[in-house]
Amino acid sequence: MSFINSDINNSGFSWAEFFAGGGMARAGLGPSWNCVFSNDNDAHKVKSYMENWSADHLLYGDIQSVPASLVPDNLTMAWASSPCQNFSSAGLGNGLLGASSSVFVKWWELIATKALLNTSPKIIVMENVAGLLNSRNGLDFELISKCFAESGYFFGVVMMDAIHFLPQSRPRLFIVAVKSEYELPLPLKLDKPSATWHPQHLVRAIQALPENLRARHIWWNLPDNIHRQLRLMDIISSDDEHINWHTEAETLKLLQSMTQTNIDKINTIRSQGSLVVGTLYRRMRTINGIRSSRAEVRFDGVAGCLRASTGGSSRQMLLFVDGESIRTRQLAPREAARLMGLPDSYKLPSLKTHAAKLVGDGVAVPVVKFLEQHLLNPLAVVVQRGCSPATL
């Protein structure tokens, strides 16, 4: 473990980025937020973090070895995009008992230690996959909610899909907590859940919590009049110089692995006689008792959720249909980064597998920006001044 430059600039809202990856939460927060501590243990992600954000306040190493004394006191906010593998539908379903997601326990020990000393972060954001709600039949969500409550926080849960901002279907859970000593302005809270940000399965998970934990929950109020402007075609590279297309044989193999339903989709597009771009994944499916790899395509102008896997077969692909012409290729790393809202100026790892893992593990930048504008900034004003903005 190594600490890289520990000088702290106290301007703005101080915050810490745990499980920082390539710093995509940092990319979403505005200039009012001053990152004074960040941590990750993936060497390739840390390298990208350093290249894009410099090495200030970056602690490279396993969260299991981070002492509470190295985390600054009285942070305005702590952000944690904790590992999701054991909560996701593609994982083993062992939740907080899993090797990856169990690091939440160590991270929370840092927060709880600070709480005992009355120096804990005033705001906490935890981001993870939607599967966290049902992990181990809701036990993990209850345990995490209990952690927030016992350390003196009120908390609210929202489900935010990147599809509101980007041409990618990427639902993610955000738990936003604030220390219970602060009076919150009424416009930040709702009396009942919002259909946009609190879908029924989230509402059921909240209702299933014990009464003492439900009493600590807040229905956060976020605007729901969102209209996505970016299209899938807007992120696709038009410069073919560095694009590696599949061979005809590779494309034919993909087509042959499709069900008739997917072939019919392609034939419908072919009849239009103009260029249409779709996205496809290879997925394991059981048909007639036989489990095999199948290619599945979508032409709704939206990419499927980007994955963190380094395996080539699980990476998203593009399918170009132009009349009788059908071509396929892998989604390029830069295109994947655009699907997460990263600017082209963001420096990606040189190896495609490292870039795919960094991007697939990250948080969608416009989602962070939206949360900052409509919830985190107002909360930061409250906790920094110690009262509701309405009373100032």
- What fold name goes in the CATH topology slot of the largest domain? Rossmann fold
Total strand segments: 14
Question: What separation lies between the terminal Cα atoms?
Answer: 44 Å
CATH class of the largest domain: Alpha Beta
Could you name the CATH homologous superfamily of the largest domain? Vaccinia Virus protein VP39
Descriptive account of the structure:
The chain has 392 residues and is α/β, with parallel strands linked by helices. It has two domains: 256 residues, Vaccinia Virus protein VP39 (Rossmann fold), CATH 3.40.50.150; 128 residues, DNA Methylase, Chain A, domain 2 (Alpha-Beta Complex), CATH 3.90.120. The protein is 29% helix and 22% strand. The protein contains twelve helices and 14 strands. Strands 1-4-3-2-5-6-8-7 form an eight-stranded mixed beta sheet, with helices on both faces. Strand 11 and strand 12 form a beta hairpin. The C terminus is likely disordered.
In short:
This protein has 392 residues and is α/β, with parallel strands linked by helices.
Detail the topology: elements first, then pairings.
Layout: E1 2-4, E2 13-18, H1 24-28, E3 33-40, H2 43-53, E4 58-60, E5 77-80, H3 103-116, E6 123-129, H4 139-150, E7 153-161, E8 171-179, E9 189-190, H5 200-207, H6 211-214, E10 219-220, H7 232-235, H8 248-256, H9 260-270, E11 275-287, E12 290-298, E13 317-322, E14 325-330, H10 333-339, H11 352-360, H12 365-385
Parallel strand pairs: 2-3, 2-5, 3-4, 5-6
Antiparallel strand pairs: 1-4, 6-8, 7-8, 9-10, 11-12, 11-13, 13-14
